[in-house]
């Protein structure tokens, strides 16, 4: 009997892996695209730095990449939910590639200006605002629920790896090829991603009756859906607060290196590489481990580790940079542990036909705090020191983690999400039954 059970388990595991093959075809294409995007991002930021040397220009470039998600995200999510997600991803990759071709022509002809780069960065960010929710909401339709946390960890590891590889490759390529050559590579990687999508079928969930009509109405339905999930509303508030403190802390790392540790570009590179390596390691660990059965516990554990890492960076004496580098690795390691389970919860518990809206809504509201945090962190850091902001950010993170277990909606986030999805399904089923009964009554008349 045990041998039969083992054989059945192996057959089921093989069947699940085989059923995930279309997902990994898409994932491979997107990995190429992510590499190309990383190259372009590094090359353009370096170009702006060399041409202007202006912190304002760099801050504006960062702000431009935030705007599409913060302003248009929820509405775009409503469109993604009603359109073919496969076509959305292909169109988004194509739009980004076309914008990059235009910028390459400007560089080739020597007519490029700073505002041209801002426009291209905005278009690329807009394409990503369409692409990201389409990819995330497609994942739940192509990956078994029990593997969602592992896939989320794998995605985090991929992004961490690209955060290390793309800048290194970008620096090397800038020394041997003009800017238009790097832009051409990005166009090629986008073509690979589009080609992979051509040969894959992504299931399209059926729209619920209340989601039909205008996209604005569908967007508002997404707001109502999240509002009816108390734990998610509270979690979004926590994410907003964390983004307000944590994101500016990492953005102030160059000043921490130069002003507190008295280091230079090499030391900054060590810190950034430590963060990237930590993200890769954390993502790989989550992809193998999968996290606790109660996913929110994995996220809260990650928050504790992040808080400890960030506080340690803030209190590290000037002569002990190696401790700060190790702490940065720890903070990076915990990022996938925090985010991976949350993405898995959304993919598992949110009704498939509403995932585009929910993902963009969560991203838009939590991400909106980052620019505000950046605006405030600068003056505060000038007053109390950059390390002081790191200490504050780490303490806030720890307080969020410690308070989580005492919040009933947070601890029962998945159960409430399951009840909400069930209610949504029953609502659709009830509407279909009523419509069927009415049509039968009409036929009998």
Short description:
This protein is 86% helix and 0% strand. The chain is mostly helical and 445 residues long. The chain has a single domain (2-201, 213-428), classed as Up-down Bundle (Growth Hormone, Chain: A).
In words, what does this structure look like?
There is one protein chain. The chain is mainly α. The protein has one domain: Growth Hormone, Chain: A. 86% of the residues lie in helices and 0% in strands. It contains 18 helices and no strands. Helix 2 (21-52) runs antiparallel to helix 5 (114-142) and helix 2 runs parallel beside helix 6. It is globular. The model is unreliable at 1-16 and 427-445 (pLDDT under 50).
Q: Helices, strands, pairings?
A:
Blueprint: H1 2-19, H2 21-52, H3 55-82, H4 85-109, H5 114-142, H6 148-176, H7 179-198, H8 215-227, H9 230-251, H10 253-260, H11 265-289, H12 295-315, H13 321-349, H14 355-367, H15 369-384, H16 386-403, H17 408-411, H18 413-444
Rg, alpha carbons: 23 Å
Spans of at least 5 consecutive residues whose pLDDT stays below 50 are: 1-16, 427-445
Largest sheet: none
Give the overall shape, derived from the CA principal axes. Answer: globular
Derived from helix and strand composition plus strand pairing, the structural class reads mainly alpha
- What's the CATH class label? Mainly Alpha
- SSE string: HHHHHHHHHHHHHHHHHH
Strand coverage percent: under 5%
Q: Helical stretch count? A: 18
Q: Helical amount among residues, as a percent range? A: over 70%
The termini sit apart by: 59 Å
Number of domains: 1
């Amino acid at each position: 009997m045990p041998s039969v059970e083992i054989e059945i388990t192996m057959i089921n595991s093989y069947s699940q892996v085989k059923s995930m093959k279309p997902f990994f075809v898409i994932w491979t294409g997107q990995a190429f695209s992510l590499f190309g995007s990383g190259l372009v991002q590094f090359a353009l930021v370096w170009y702006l730095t060399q041409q202007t040397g202006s912190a304002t220009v760099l801050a504006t470039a960062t702000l431009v990449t935030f705007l599409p998600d913060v302003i248009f995200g929820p509405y775009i999510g409503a469109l993604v939910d009603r359109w073919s997600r496969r076509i959305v991803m292909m169109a988004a990759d194509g739009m980004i590639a076309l914008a990059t071709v235009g910028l390459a022509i400007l560089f080739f002809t020597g007519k490029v200006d700073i505002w041209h780069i801002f426009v291209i960065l905005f278009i690329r960010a807009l394409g990503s605002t369409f692409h990201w929710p389409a990819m995330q909401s497609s994942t739940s339709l192509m990956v078994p629920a029990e593997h969602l946390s592992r896939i989320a960890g794998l995605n985090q590891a991929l992004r961490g790896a690209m955060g290390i590889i793309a800048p290194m490759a970008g620096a090397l390529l800038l020394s041997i090829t003009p800017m238009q050559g790097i832009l051409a590579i990005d166009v090629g990687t986008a073509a690979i991603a589009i080609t992979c999508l051509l040969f894959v079928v992504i299931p399209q969930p059926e729209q619920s009756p209340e989601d039909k009509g205008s996209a604005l109405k569908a967007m508002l339905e997404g707001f109502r859906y999240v509002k009816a999930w108390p734990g998610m509303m509270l979690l979004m508030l926590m994410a907003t607060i964390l983004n307000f403190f944590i994101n500016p802390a990492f953005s102030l790392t160059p000043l921490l290196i130069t002003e507190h540790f008295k280091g230079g570009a090499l030391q900054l590179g060590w810190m950034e590489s430590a963060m990237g390596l930590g993200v890769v390691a954390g993502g790989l660990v989550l992809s193998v481990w999968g996290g606790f059965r109660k996913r929110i516990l994995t996220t809260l554990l990650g928050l504790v580790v992040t808080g400890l890492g960030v506080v340690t960076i803030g209190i590290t004496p000037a002569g002990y940079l190696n401790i700060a580098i190790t702490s940065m690795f720890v903070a990076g390691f915990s990022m996938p542990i925090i985010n991976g389970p949350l993405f898995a919860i959304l993919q598992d518990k949110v009704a498939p036909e509403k995932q585009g809206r929910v993902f963009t809504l969560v991203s838009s509201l939590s991400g909106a705090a980052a620019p505000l945090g950046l605006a405030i962190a600068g003056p505060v850091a000038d007053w109390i020191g950059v390390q002081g902001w790191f200490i504050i950010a780490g303490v806030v993170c720890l307080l969020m983690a410690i308070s989580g277990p005492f919040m009933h909606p947070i601890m029962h986030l998945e159960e409430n999400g399951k009840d909400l999805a069930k209610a949504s399904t029953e609502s659709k089923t009830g509407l279909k039954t009523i419509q069927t009964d009415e049509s039968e009554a009409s036929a009998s008349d």
